[in-house]
Amino acid sequence: MNDDLEQLFKSLRLTRMAALYDEELAKAEKDETPFPRLLARLLRAEWQHRQDSALEWRIKNARLPERWTLESFPFKKQPGVNQRQIRTFAELEFIPKAENIVFVGPTGVGKTGLAASLLLKALQNGHRGAFVKAQDLFDEMYSSLADRSTRKLLKQLSRLDVLVIDEMGYLNLKPEQTNIFFKLMEERYRRHPTIITTNLEYEEWHGFLGNKHLVDALLSRLRHQCHTVTIKGPSLRDPQS
After folding, report:
1. Torsion-angle region of residue 15: left (phi > 0), alpha (psi -120 to 50) or beta?
2. Long-range contacts from 235-241, C-beta under 8 angstroms, 24+ separation
3. Angle formed by the axes of helices 35-62 and 15-31, to 10°?
4. What is the dihedral of CA 130, 165, 98, 187, to 10 degrees?
5. Bridging pattern class, strands 162-168 and 129-133
6. Contacting residues for 143 by C-beta, under 8 A, at least 6 apart
7. Which of 29, 113, 142, 176 is 20 to 30 A from residue 67's alpha carbon, by CA?
8. For 208-218, what is the mean pLDDT?
9. pLDDT of 43-66, one tens digit each?
């Protein structure tokens, strides 16, 4: 590769093309490959590299706990999960329709794995998203009051294509945290879907969120366009005999 070409690759940030150029050129000369075909191979490699890099960036920023996939979920060991329903979710039609998904069930039945797998599927299809533990989310909301960054936090979270909130349960919350959470769900309502995992039935949400009228308004929005998946099955964490 001559200096001019190397500089052009660098200036245009065609890193994958630059890395493959000498090898692909030698192969093309040997096979007498027409220039248009050589160029197409190089451009295709660059495009794939950028797609892969963009996906890795989305996954890193989503803060997934593990790269769980639906293909690895043990459906046979969890009769409480309707595999057909989950596969339908994986088609991602719930995203443009802004339909929430709430997984309800005791600890260990696979709620987090399913939620994370759907988020990964969304990321793989070009959507932006985030995974956050409920306790961490409420802590971050409370901290935002001190430095007056609440509006910035809400703006960031409300714009995500998919937001997963894991382990909504009996948390010790202050009224300010409940208010901010309500505002978040209000801003996402009918715009972007939220996936929630919880071990509580909806009637129990008043117990940790407090303010009955606010919780009623919150649940009205959350459940308006929502798929509630109640999982009644064995714990997948039980020791195997």
Report:
1. alpha
2. 235/106, 235/107, 235/108, 235/109, 236/74, 236/77, 236/78, 236/108, 236/109, 236/110, 236/113, 237/107, 237/108, 238/108
3. 150
4. -90
5. parallel
6. none
7. 142
8. 89
9. 999 999 998 889 999 999 999 998
